[in-house]
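ok, trying the design again with the full structure, not the truncated one.
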């Protein structure tokens, strides 16, 4: 199993990078993307590769925060027990890539004298992907455009458009609905639509799909705190138990410090007094 490149730089406002996997052996194999850290999503996450074939695997930035200290890494594995590590390098500017793209989107839409639309967000996303040499060879690339647009629209404050873009992304590529990042993003959208029960349901799905992964503990901490914040907003007494849980708080403080302020408002502050 040949993999190239073995380092992906997410610098500045880069939202996508890709690796190519080539079957240079004598047998077909099944490959899998493993141990991808939070803040990144693979497409496709697995597949079959026949002898002599090459596949492009895109790694895109999600609305989740990235690890605090670069570089990070993930593994490409196959059923012959080959393990090829790929390094992810990123800078401080890329940690806020969705916020930056959202500002670009708001400026663009303001010049059109309208609220940001899905079409506007797709234009901003396309501009951010223009430097990717491998983008056109990525499977289900159109669904990833809508996924990225949903994150940018959510950050820009247009909840209805974000919901529509995310629905389009998962309709075009149902495999996205098995990614924890999809359900965390959907939680953000549903929370802003004042649909707390559906929001918490998506947390359960995020936890389920993260089970056994490298990010399972972090996902559980994030979803536990945010579920508590939703319940706290409804005045439910068990909310304090969730939000005050030390393991939950510690996990989130290490991973989502910036997004807590945006998404939770005063829930964490009130619970920790």
């Amino acid at each position: 199993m040949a993999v190239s490149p073995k380092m992906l730089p997410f610098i500045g406002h880069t939202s996508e990078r890709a690796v190519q996997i080539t079957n240079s052996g004598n047998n077909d194999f099944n490959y899998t993307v493993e141990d991808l850290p939070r803040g990144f999503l693979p497409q496709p996450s697995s597949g079959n590769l026949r002898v002599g074939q090459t596949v492009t695997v895109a790694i895109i930035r999600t609305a989740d925060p990235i690890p605090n200290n670069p570089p990070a890494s993930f593994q490409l594995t196959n059923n012959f027990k080959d393990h090829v590590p790929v390094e992810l390098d990123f800078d401080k500017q890329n940690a806020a890539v969705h916020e930056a793209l959202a500002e670009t989107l708001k400026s663009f839409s303001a010049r059109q004298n309208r609220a940001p639309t899905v079409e506007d967000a797709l234009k901003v996303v396309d501009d951010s992907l223009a430097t990717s040499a491998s983008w056109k060879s990525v499977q289900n690339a159109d669904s990833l455009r809508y996924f990225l647009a949903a994150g940018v629209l959510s950050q820009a404050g247009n909840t209805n458009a974000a919901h529509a873009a995310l629905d389009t992304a998962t309709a075009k590529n149902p495999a996205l609905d098995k990614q924890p990042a999809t359900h965390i993003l959907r939680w953000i959208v549903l929370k802003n639509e004042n649909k707390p029960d559906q929001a918490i349901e998506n947390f359960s799905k995020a936890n389920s799909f993260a089970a056994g992964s490298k990010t399972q503990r972090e996902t559980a901490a994030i979803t536990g705190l945010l579920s508590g914040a939703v319940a706290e907003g409804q005045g439910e007494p068990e909310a304090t138990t969730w939000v005050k849980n030390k393991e939950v708080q510690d996990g989130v403080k290490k991973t989502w410090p910036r997004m807590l302020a945006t998404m939770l408002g005063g829930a964490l502050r009130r619970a920790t007094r």
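Keeping the full-length input from now on. The first helix runs from residue 92 to 95.
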